[in-house]
Write a structure and sequence with these properties.
single chain; alpha+beta; 3-stranded antiparallel sheet; 20 helices; disordered C terminus
C-alpha cells in the first residue's frame, strides 16, 4: 500500500506510509464495496491533513495524484441470499438493461420533478381522498419501470426478512393474522403512522441495500430505481389542505413527496417500508415484552393489547412511549387515529371485530346479505353502486373473506350468491374480449 501510494503521488514521503498504516488499521478487510466511504476516511486522516498543512507552511506544492490506479468494486458480506451484484455491470445484466437505459430509469438527470409533460416521466399520479378529508398520492410506475421493480423484489427484497411483528405485505400473513394476535384481550390499543411510505427517505433505502452487501454505486442505483420525487407542478396544484385541521399534516406530506421517498404504488415499496420499520418493530416488541403486552404491525397500523385491564393513565403513558420511539425511528404517530378499546366495547382492528375471535362486523355482513338479496330479485348490476369493473368477482372475494372468518355466515352468503343470475354480468365483462378456448371452465 505504501509503495503504490508513493507511486500515486510521485513522491517518497513518510506520511504516505503513516496513511497506509491508518487505513490498514481501520479497514482490516479491503473496502471494495465502499470506495466513497474509504475516500472520506482518508480525507479526514491525520497524516494526510498534516501533509497539506506542512506544504502550506513551507510554500511547497500540495500532495497531488499523479498516477491513478483503478480498481473494481465487490460486494461486502451479505447476510441473506440476495442476487450477487459486484458492479453496475452486474446490475445491468440482472435487469437486462444497457448503461444509458439504466441511467434513464434511475432518473440520473432528475427529470421527474421538473418536466411538465407525462411522456418523460416514469410514474403516473392519482390523488385519492382519505376518510378524514386528507389526500393520498398514488404513484404508479409505468410498465418498464414496474417490471424492473418486480425483478428487484424477486431477486433481492424477497430474501431479506422483515420483523416477526410485521403482518402486512408478507406471504402467509394478513390483516386476519394481525387481528388474531389481539383477539380476546382486556384492552386493545391502536396507533397509526402518518404518511408511512412517504416518510421513508432515500437515505434509509440506501442503508437497506448497503446492509445487503451491495457496493455504494450499486446501492445508489437500486435506491434511485425504487424511490421517487414528484413533479413540482403536481404538488403546486394540491398545496392547500381541505381543512385547517389538516394543514400541518398536509404540509408534512408535501415535504416528504418533494424529496426522494418510497412511492405508494411501486411493487418494491411494501417490502422496503417493512424493512425500514425493522428497528421500530424491534423496539416496540421489546417495550411490549417488558410491559407484559402484545404488539404487532400491519403496514402503518400499530396495535398493542393486554390480557389485564389498564387504567387510562397507564394507557396514556404507554402511548407516549410508542410516540417517542416512532419519532426516534423516523416516523410520526397520527394523534387523530390513536384510540383504545376495552372488552366491554366493540374492539376493532383492520376492519375486524376481535372481542373473542376475529370476525366480520355484523353491519358488513348485513350489507352484503342485502346486496345479494337485491341481486337475486333484480339485475345484479343495479347493486353495483361503486361501479366496480368486475362486480361478480368482487362480491365473491368479500364472501370468501367472511367464510374464512365465519364459515356459517359464509355458507349462507355463498348460497345466496349462487341464486343470482349472472348471465348479463358475464356478458358485459366478456364484451370486447377474445372467446375462451375450447374446454375452458367459466365459473
Amino acid at each position: 500500500m505504501t509503495r503504490r501510494g508513493q507511486r500515486a503521488v510521485g513522491q517518497r514521503r513518510v506520511w504516505v506510509r503513516d496513511l497506509a498504516l491508518a487505513a490498514r488499521h481501520a479497514y482490516p478487510r479491503a473496502p471494495m464495496d465502499a470506495p466513497r466511504e474509504f475516500a472520506g476516511f482518508l480525507a479526514e486522516c491525520a497524516p494526510l491533513r498534516q501533509a497539506f498543512l506542512t506544504a502550506f507552511e513551507r510554500s511547497e506544492p500540495v500532495p497531488t495524484i499523479r498516477k491513478w490506479f483503478m480498481n473494481g468494486s465487490a460486494m461486502g458480506p451479505a447476510r441473506w441470499p440476495v442476487a450477487v451484484l459486484h458492479s453496475v455491470g452486474d446490475l445491468q445484466a440482472l435487469l437486462g438493461l444497457g448503461h444509458s437505459e439504466l441511467m434513464w430509469l434511475a432518473d440520473a438527470l432528475q427529470l421527474e420533478r421538473s418536466v411538465s409533460g407525462e411522456r418523460l416521466r416514469h410514474y403516473r399520479y392519482r390523488w385519492a381522498t382519505k376518510s378524514n378529508g386528507g389526500v393520498r398520492l398514488i404513484e404508479e410506475p409505468k410498465p418498464r419501470l414496474k417490471h424492473i421493480q418486480k425483478v428487484l423484489v424477486r431477486q433481492v427484497l424477497d430474501h431479506v426478512p422483515a420483523h416477526e411483528a410485521a403482518h402486512g405485505f408478507r406471504p402467509g400473513r394478513s390483516a386476519i393474522s394481525y387481528a388474531t394476535t389481539h383477539a380476546g384481550q382486556a384492552i386493545v390499543m391502536h396507533l397509526d403512522l402518518e404518511d408511512f411510505f412517504g416518510t421513508v427517505t432515500a437515505g434509509r433505502v440506501f442503508g437497506i441495500f448497503r446492509s445487503c452487501g451491495y457496493p455504494e454505486r450499486v446501492a445508489h442505483l437500486l435506491t434511485a430505481l425504487t424511490t421517487n420525487s414528484i413533479p413540482h407542478s403536481l404538488w403546486a396544484a394540491a398545496a392547500h389542505a381541505s381543512s385547517p385541521l389538516l394543514a400541518d399534516s398536509h404540509f408534512r406530506l408535501g415535504q416528504h413527496l418533494r424529496h426522494p421517498h418510497l412511492p405508494q404504488g411501486a411493487p418494491t415499496s411494501p417490502a422496503l417500508a417493512n424493512l425500514s420499520a425493522y428497528r421500530l418493530d424491534l423496539r416496540l416488541s421489546g417495550l411490549a415484552q417488558t410491559s407484559g403486552i402484545v404488539y404487532s404491525r400491519y403496514a402503518d397500523d400499530l396495535a398493542l393489547s393486554s390480557t389485564t385491564p389498564l387504567a387510562r393513565p397507564q394507557v396514556e403513558r404507554l402511548v407516549r412511549f410508542v410516540e417517542g420511539i416512532a419519532v426516534q425511528e423516523g416516523f410520526r404517530v397520527n394523534p387523530f387515529k390513536t384510540f383504545f378499546q376495552r372488552s366491554s366495547q366493540r374492539q376493532r382492528l383492520a376492519g375486524l371485530v376481535v372481542n373473542h375471535r376475529p370476525n366480520v362486523d355484523r353491519r358488513e355482513y348485513d350489507q352484503l346479505k342485502a346486496i345479494l338479496h337485491n341481486a337475486v330479485r333484480d339485475d345484479p348490476q343495479s347493486q353495483n353502486r361503486s361501479h366496480h369493473p368486475h362486480f361478480r368477482s368482487h362480491l365473491l372475494g368479500r364472501i370468501s373473506r367472511i367464510k374464512h372468518l365465519n364459515p356459517d355466515r359464509g355458507e349462507r352468503l355463498l348460497a345466496a350468491y349462487r341464486q343470482v343470475d349472472w348471465t348479463q354480468e358475464q356478458a358485459s365483462e366478456s364484451f370486447g374480449k377474445s372467446p375462451a378456448p375450447t374446454g375452458a371452465q367459466v365459473p
